[in-house]
Amino acid sequence: MSGLGSYITLFALQVLVVLTLHGSAADVSWLNAARWLPYLVFGLVVGAIVDGRRRLPLMVASHRPQLVPTRAPIEALSRSLPRGG
User: Fold this and answer.
1) Which pLDDT belongs to residue 62?
2) Do 33 and 51 meet the contact criterion of CB atoms below 8 Å apart?
3) Sequence-distant (≥ 6) Cβ neighbours of residue 18 within 8 angstroms
4) Dihedral sign for Cα atoms in the order 60, 63, 64, 70
5) How far is CA 49 from the centre of its chain?
6) Residues in contact with 31: Cβ distance below 8 Å, sequence separation at least 6, in sequence order
7) Rg of the chain's alpha carbons, rounded to an integer?
8) How far lies 76's CA from each of 12, 64, 69, 85, in Å?
9) Tell me, what's the pLDDT at 25?
10) Is 53 in a helix, a strand, or coil?
């Protein structure tokens, strides 16, 4: 669903540039290029920093945010199950 929202935002920005700001096709292309600029800049900087570090702790740390959405449904399900004893 997040991808759909991103595409709607991109389309809305392009329409805004063309209709409200009276932009040209070149202006829309600059907008699209600017959308990818943070990935390029931060990707190069973070890539250079990561190259000097050990891989395993970095991989474990990068997978921790994935545990949060996975852990909540498991805990909710475990609370709803009857306990033996």
Assistant:
1) 80
2) no
3) 27, 28
4) negative
5) 20
6) 13, 14, 17
7) 22
8) 38, 19, 12, 20
9) 92
10) coil
What are the residue boundaries of the structural domains of the chain, listed by start?
2-80
DSSP, residue by residue, 28-45: HHHHHHHHHHHHHHHHHH
Phi, psi of 82 (to 5 degrees): -70, 145
User: Helix crossing, 25-51 with 2-15: angle to 10°?
Assistant: 140
Distance (Å, rounded) from C-alpha 34 to C-alpha 10?
12
Task: Specify the pLDDT at position 1.
Answer: 61
- Residue 42 sits at the vertex; the CA angle it makes with 69 and 15, to the nearest 5 degrees, is 80
What tens digit of pLDDT does each residue of 36-66 get? 888 888 888 888 888 888 888 888 888 777 7
